[in-house]
Amino acid sequence: MPSLIPVALGLVAGFATFVLVIVVIRGLNAAAESGRREQALADYGKVEQQTAALTTKSESAIGVALDRYRNSLQQQLNTASIAISPVNWMALQVTITVLGTVLLGQRLQSPIVALLVSALIAFFGTRLVVNSRTEKRIADFETNLPQTLQLLASGIRSGLTFDQAIESSSTQDRSEVGRQFRLAVAEAQLDNELEAALLRVAKRMKSDDLKWLVSALQIQREIGGSLSGILDTVADTIRARADIRREVRVLSAEGKLSGYVLIAMPFVVLLALMVIRPTYVAFFWSDPMGILMGVIFLTLVGVGWFWLQRIVKVKA
After folding, report:
1. CA dihedral for 186, 187, 191, 196, sign (positive or negative)
2. Contacts of 45 (CB under 8 A, 6+ apart)
3. Contact between residue 261 and residue 229 where contact means Cβ atoms under 8 Å apart
4. Does residue 101 contact residue 110 with C-beta atoms inside 8 Å?
5. I need a surface site. Which of 20, 71, 263, 265 has the fewest CB within 10 A?
6. In Å, what is the CA distance from 120 to each residue of 32, 101, 117?
7. Three-point CA angle 247, 252, 258, nearest 5°
8. What is the CATH number of domain 139-247?
C-alpha cells in the first residue's frame, strides 16, 4: 500500500498539470483574438452576457457572497485584459494549489501546511499577475489620455461632432485609450449613451480624470461653450497632474521598495528553509508555541503592510 502513494501523487500531479496547460492555452487563444475593433461589439456582448449571468441573485448567503466575488473577479479580469472567465481563473488557482500541495507535501511532511502554503501562493501569485497587468494598462491609459483629448479637440475644430471625433480617433489609436474608447463607442451604439459608456471606461480604468471630463461634457451640453477649448484645458490639467504623480512616485520609490523588501524577506527565507531544511521551521506548525508565534508574526506583518500602504499612497 505505501508504494501506491507515490503513484497516486504522480497521477494527481499529472492531471493537475494537464488542467493547468489547458486553461493557459485557452486563455492565450482567447487573448489573441481580442483587441480588434470588429470584435468590439462581440466582446462587449460577451462581457454583458457574463455580467448578466454573474449578477443573478442567489437566495442563500453563501450564494450572494460567491456572486459578489465572481462579479468582482470578472471586473478585475476585464480591467487587466485577461480573457479568462472567473470559473477558469478559479480553476487555475485550484490547479496551482493542487500542484503545490503535491510538491510540498512530501518535503514538509505535513499535508495541511503544504495545502495552506500552496493556496496562499496560488491566490497571491495570480493576484500579483492581475494587479501587474492592471497597473500597466492604467499607466498606459493615463499617459496617452491627454494626447487623445487634444486629437479630439482638433477633430472638433475641423467640423466633426464629439461622437464622430471620438470614433475617428479611437479607430486610429492603438494604445489603451483607443481600445477603451472603441469599447465605449460600441456600447454607445447599443444604448445611445456615450457619456454613460465613458463613465464605465473611467470605472474600469480607475480614472478620475476621465470622470471629470464626462462631467465637463455634461455641463457643456447644458450651458454651451467651446467644446474644443474644454478638451484642451482638460488635457493640460491631466498632463500637469500626471507630472505631479510622477514626481510623487519618484520621491516615494525608495521608501516603498525598502518596505516591500522588508516585508517579503521573512516569507522568502521561510519558503527557502521549507524547501532546503524543513526541520528548521517545522516548529512553527508542529508546536503550539510555534503556531502562536506564527499568528503573531502574520498579524504584525499585516499591520505593517497596511501602514506602509497608507503612508506611501499619495493622491495627486
Report:
1. negative
2. none
3. no
4. no
5. 265
6. 29, 11, 5
7. 150
8. 1.20.81
Contact 234, 212 (CB under 8 A): yes
* Mean local confidence (pLDDT), 14-41: 52
Q: Measure CA 144 to chain center.
A: 20
Over residues 221-263, the pLDDT tens digits come to 888 778 888 888 888 888 888 888 888 878 777 777 888 888 8
Q: Tell me if the pTM is above 0.85.
A: no
Q: Which helix (H) or strand (E) holds 313?
A: none
d(CA 52, CA 297): 42
Q: Which residue bears the cell 473611467?
A: 202
One-character DSSP codes across 98-163: HHHHHHHHHHHS-HHHHHHHHHHHHHHHHHHHHHHHHHHHHHHHHHHHHHHHHHHHHHHHTT--HH
Residue 85 near residue 71 (C-beta atoms within 8 A) = no
* Burial (CB count <10 Å: 0-12, 13-18, 19+), residue 37: middle
pLDDT attached to residue 16: 55
Q: Using an 8 Å Cβ cutoff, are 126 and 89 in contact? A: yes
pLDDT digit string, tens, across residues 124-181? 888 888 888 888 888 888 888 888 888 888 888 888 888 888 888 888 888 888 888 8
**Among 215, 237, 80, 79, residue whose Cα is nearest residue 149:** 237
